[in-house]
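Here comes my example:
=====
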Amino acid sequence: MSTETDIITWLSTQREPMIQALREMVDTDGGSYDKEGVDRVGAQVARFMAAQGIPVETLPQQKHGDCIRAVLDDDSSVSGGNARQNILLMGHRDTVFPKGEPTRRPFTIEGDRAFGPGVADMKAGLVMNMFVLAAFKKFGGAPGPLVALFTGDEEIGSPEGRPVIEAEAKAARVVFNSEPGRPNGGIVTGRKGGVFSVFDIEGKAAHSGGNFEAGISAIGELAAKITAIHALTDLKRGITLNVGLVTGGQSVNTVAPHAQGQIDLRYVEPADREEVMAKIQAIIDTSHVPGTRAKLTIKGEFLPLTQSPEAAKLFATYRAAATESGFDPSGEFSGGCADSGFTAAMGAPTLCAVGPVGGKAHTPEEYLELSSLVPRAQAVARAILRLGPA
């Protein structure tokens, strides 16, 4: 048999081991701020790789989950030069859910669907990447060094993981990011960029009945700024702004001495980022309630995923491989953000959402289509085999 036949045949036998690995992973706590839990998921990945004889490097992170880097080729390393040899499989281990969620809502199967925190976004994609590497370890055939990167803080903008991802992207010939496949089976070829920021407002406290005129309302200023920020939304250009969290005040009978708003900005074109951020800064710097002061702080950021000509060729290769694996994926644009934007911005042809199919991410109803586990793994494996020599 050919190497491709060996790999595809072996993957076709791995549905149950994949489900077992996924069950363990989903039933392990792993919120973005739970470093211990995210690292336990990383330990599961490392144990699997060790059992397959695949070298693993742990890149320690101070606040969030460590980055796990599995390498199939002994000579593969992050390159600071112009060489792009590595075939990169990528995914994040953290979820959006609070500590204890797996205990409250453990991994379950109903028919062909699996449920549980992070089952689709994106623990199934991690399991898929693990088994794809195992297949190439068993049978060979990869047309270049094969690297899998498992990061730990994507759901909060990869504040620590981003430098690791960008360094890896410099050496990447292509990138497959295993976010969940779309509910219709499609993958993502374009994404919006996003900036997540916080603005803090200082006012002056005063008794709202006996000394009202001495107060300076930070909440009054917050309301004016929210209205101005939301007015920057331009749906035709794909620009949206949402102040999704607000806090402030001291008591109902006190003029508010402080307030805070958190902003979600999404955009399509890279140039739009600077334009809109400048407008937001101007709003923050302008006092609608005299005497207030405000400060803007960027807390996290994603870059847009744009489809280069090389990425379009990679999609064509993947689509042909997927068709042979039993499905015909469309290439879709998503308003959501992901680490794939970082690799694309570094010049690495990137496909996103090549992981198993799921839906309703970030909710208690999140699900995974179990029947997609093997075909999606086979599609990635076939696409890798079809890349040819670097």
Observations:
- Residues 74-81 have pLDDT under 50 and may be disordered.
- The chain has eleven helices and 19 strands.
- Residues 3 and 141 are 6 Å apart (CA to CA).
